[in-house]
Amino acid sequence: MGLEKAMGDSFVITKLNEAIRWCQKNSIWPQPMGISCCAIEMMAFASPRFDVSRFGSEVFRFSPRQADLMIVAGTTTYKMAHVVRKIYDQMPDPKWVIAMGVCTSSGGMYRTYSVVQGIDQFIPVDVYVGGCPPRPDNLINALMMIQKKIQQQGSQEHHQAQPIYIDQPANISV
Amino acid sequence: MIAQRAVEKLREQFNDVVHEVIEFREQLLVRIETSSIREVCQFLRDDEELKFDMAIDVLGADRLVPVDNPTMHGYVNDPFDRELRSKQEHIPADERFEVIYVLYSNMNNEYIRLKVRVAEEGQRVPSVVAVWKSADCAEREVYDMFGIEFEGHPDLRRIYMPEYFEHYPLRKDFPLMGIPGSLPLPDKQ
Q1: What order do you get walking across the sheet with A69-73 strand by strand?
Q2: Could you confirm whether domain B2-151 is CATH 3.30.460.80?
C-alpha cells in the first residue's frame, strides 16, 4: 500500500486475522494432563533448562477453563479416558491437543485390555509425539508445530486438518 | 528357622490342614486346607513364638493351561474350551485357582508363605481381614482380577476395574486385548 514508505518504521500493515493468529500462537496456555511418567519430561519442558517461556507457553493452567492446549502426557486407561474427555470438554474453543509419548499416541508397550490404544479414539489430536518418554526438546518441537499450525490455519478449521506425527527429535540447541 | 517351627506347630495344633510343604531357596511355602485358612492365620499371628503379625500380600494365581488339539497341531480355536479340557489330562476344575498369602514376623524377621487351592466355581475362601487389616485391599484385588470370592470380607468390591465390568482380566481364558465393548469410551465428537 506504500503506507510503510510514507510513515517509516513505526507501522506494520497486516490482516486482522493474521494479527490474531500471531497473538494466539505466542500465548498458548497448556493444561498439563500428566497421567504418568511423561509428566516428568513435561515438567522439564517447563523448567528453566528447556524453558518453554521462550515460546510464550510458560503459564501452565490447572484449570481447563483457562487453557488452550492439552498436553496428554502418559498412559491413558479406559477408566481415565472419561476424565480426560471431561477435562477436554471444559476447555474453551479454540483448543489443541498434543498426544505426548507412545502410550498416549498408540498404547505403546501397553498392548493390553486396560489401556486405550491411542487417545485419538475419543478426542481429536493435533500433534503426536513419539518417544518413551520424548525428550523435552521433542515436546518443544510439538509446541512449535502447533504454533505453525495456528499461523497457517488459524483456529477455525483445525479439527478438519491432518494431524502431525513427530518421531524424530527436534534439532533445537538448548 | 521359624517357618519350619511354624509348620511343626501347625501339624501339632490342627488335624490335616498342612497338605504340602515346598522349600525353594530356603523359602518355605505351605499348602493349607482351604476351609481352615482363617484359623491357621489366626494361630500364626497370635502364637507367642511365631508372631506372624504382618500380611505383606495376598495374591491369586490361575493354574489353567491351554489344551493341545489332537487334530490340528498346536492350534485350537479356544484353547480353554471346557469340553476339550475335560477330555485331556488337565488341572482339575476344583483346584484351578490358588490364593497365596505372604506373611512376615517382625519379631523373628522371617517370612512364610501359605497357599490354598480354590475351585473354578462355587467355592469361597474364608477372608483373613479379621486377622490382618492389611489383607483388605489385597483380597479385593484378587477378587477383581480372578473372581475369587472371600467369605466374610467387609467390603468385597472391585478395586481396579470399573464396577460395571463383568469379566476377570487375569484369568488365563481372558483375551489379552480384552473383550470388545466391555469397557466403553467417551464419544469422539
Answers
A1: A30-34, A69-73, A96-100, A127-129, A164-166
A2: yes
Q: How far is CA A105 from the centre of its chain?
A: 13
Residues B114-136 have pLDDT tens digits of: 999 998 888 889 999 999 999 99
**Torsion, Cα of A9, A15, A16, A20 (10° steps):** -80
Sorted by where each begins, the domain ranges of chain A are 30-166
Residues of A with CB under 8 A from a CB of B: 78-79, 81-82, 85-86, 111-114, 116, 120-124
User: Would you state the cell numbers that stand for residue A47, as one nine-digit string?
Assistant: 523448567
Q: Is the ipTM of this complex over 0.85?
A: no
Please give, rounded to a whole number of angstroms, the shortest distance from the CA of B161 to a CA of chain A.
8
Q: Which residues of chain B fall short of a pLDDT of 70? A: 66-90, 189
Best residue of B141, B173, B185 to probe chain A, by most A CBs closer than 10 Å: B185
Torsion of CA A110, B141, B90, B83, to 10 degrees: -80
Cell for A102?
507412545
> Residue type at A121?
Q
A122/B161 CB distance under 8 A: no
Give the span between the Cα atoms of A150 and A141, in whole angstroms: 14
Domain A30-166 in CATH 3.40.50.720: no
**Per-residue model confidence (pLDDT) at position A76:** 92
Selected residues 41-100 of chain B with any CB under 8 Å from a CB in chain A: none
Express each pLDDT in A38-76 by its tens digit.
Answer: 999 999 998 999 989 898 888 888 999 999 899 999 899
Any alpha helices (H) in chain B, and if so which ranges? 2-13, 37-46, 82-87, 135-146
Q: Residue B106 in contact with residue B32, Cβ under 8 Å?
A: no
Average pLDDT across each block of 10 residues of chain A; the chain has 174 residues. List them in order: 70 81 89 90 90 88 91 91 91 88 90 90 89 89 89 63 62 53
CA nearest B161 in A: which residue?
Answer: A79
Phi, psi dihedral angles at A45 (to 5 degrees): -60, -30
